[in-house]
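Here is the promised in-class demo. Please do not try to memorize the tokens; focus on the logic of going from shape to residues.
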């Protein structure tokens, strides 16, 4: 038999693009909206993708820099100014459709430093930066009255992009925000200096100065990106916390396919020990507090410390947790009830007990001596001294000092 080969009708090729991951894969797009992926090792197409609406007039194509099976196709038809995101593994329909332009799209460019950012320019004099994962516009750059037929990312500095317009200008912008006033004023001054304010058209009047900045003052401010690009995000980070805690995190490099799915991120909390002796003492104190053995802990410190000052401090701390703390505090201060009794008895002897009258007799005598005429509550409060005298408690070895110490210790 005769082998008959059925060939499709020839069609113009609008754009071609090499795959970013596989070197022998080449894709071509046609005005009819069809894209063909070629395997150059076999010199034949391996897959064809096309829109079923037959309204896609392909004007641009770009491969995903991270995912080898994803590409985008743009349409220059004003009736369908969309960008289609295709995945060759699911080539029956577009994975996502980006719609925001009001005129046909002329050029697209995929960022090599952040696969989630895609640039597009269209006939509506707008340059948009898309987030491929969410499908929203994260940056918009106002342009001149002329269409920009080509946009490209800077291969060395991903924050810069260039545009080529039909008025013969190539402009460089930054997606980190800025202003166009200086550029527009420079262009206006250049035009004025070229004409030199001469009457070239025979009107009898010189040319008026060009004033463009006032007309576009409301449009010159360029806001920055709505989301931080990947190249300025912190890949790693660390922070110290109280108690020797170290908190670290890592942001691994992820692809657009992984962005579409929930990603689990980890924050690691580590213990950093720099003062081992201090940590040991802190653990011992925590153990004593939880086991209610703080008295034994203080006693251990009393026996292990070297200086007398630290020993006295730990003794006072231990007394706080013991019974009869008042008497023990007085002993630490040098006051002893027994010794005071001995000193008082050695000075006064037994006369102290016989000489002191009963409390009831003394109080009765005071009541008999006092009369309402001599003392009254009103007279007492009328003669209250204005300045209170300073009171000092004697603690010397004489009679008054011994009595004060006896009252202090409860003897």
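The designed amino acids, position by position:
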């Amino acid at each position: 038999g005769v082998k008959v080969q059925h060939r499709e009708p020839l069609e113009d090729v609008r754009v071609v693009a090499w795959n970013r991951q596989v070197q022998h894969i080449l894709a071509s797009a046609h005005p009819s909206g069809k894209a063909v992926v070629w395997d150059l090792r076999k010199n034949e197409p391996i897959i064809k993708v096309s829109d079923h609406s037959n309204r896609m007039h392909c004007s641009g194509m770009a491969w995903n820099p991270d995912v080898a099976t994803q590409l985008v196709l743009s349409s220059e038809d004003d009736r369908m100014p969309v960008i289609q995101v295709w995945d060759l593994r699911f080539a029956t329909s577009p994975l996502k459709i980006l719609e925001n332009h009001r005129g046909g799209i002329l050029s697209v460019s995929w960022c090599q430093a952040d696969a989630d950012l895609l640039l597009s320019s269209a006939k509506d004099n707008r340059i948009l930066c898309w987030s491929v994962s969410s499908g929203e516009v994260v940056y918009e750059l106002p342009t001149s009255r002329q269409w920009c037929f080509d946009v490209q990312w800077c291969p060395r500095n991903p924050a810069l992009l260039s545009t080529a317009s039909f008025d013969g200008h190539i402009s460089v912008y930054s997606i980190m925000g800025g202003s166009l006033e200086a550029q527009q004023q420079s262009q206006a001054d250049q035009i004025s200096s070229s004409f030199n304010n001469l009457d070239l058209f025979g009107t009898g009047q010189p040319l008026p100065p060009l004033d463009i900045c006032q007309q576009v003052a409301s449009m010159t401010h360029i806001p920055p990106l709505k989301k931080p690009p990947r190249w300025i995000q912190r890949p790693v980070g660390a922070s110290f916390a109280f108690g020797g805690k170290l908190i670290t995190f890592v942001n691994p490099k992820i692809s657009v396919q992984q962005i579409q799915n929930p990603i689990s991120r980890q924050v690691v909390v580590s213990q950093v020990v720099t003062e081992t002796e201090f940590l040991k003492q802190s653990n011992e104190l925590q153990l004593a507090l939880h086991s209610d053995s703080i008295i034994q802990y203080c006693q251990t410190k009393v026996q292990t410390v070297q200086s007398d000052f630290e020993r006295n401090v730990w003794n006072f701390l231990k007394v706080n947790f013991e019974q009869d703390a008042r008497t023990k505090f007085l002993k630490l201060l040098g006051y002893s009830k027994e010794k005071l009794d001995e000193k008082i008895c050695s000075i006064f002897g037994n006369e102290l007990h016989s000489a002191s009258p009963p409390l009831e007799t003394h109080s009765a005598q005071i009541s008999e001596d006092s009369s309402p005429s001599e003392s009254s509550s009103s007279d007492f409060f009328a003669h209250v001294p204005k300045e209170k005298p300073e009171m000092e408690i004697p603690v010397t070895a004489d009679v008054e000092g011994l009595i004060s110490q006896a009252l202090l210790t409860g003897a």
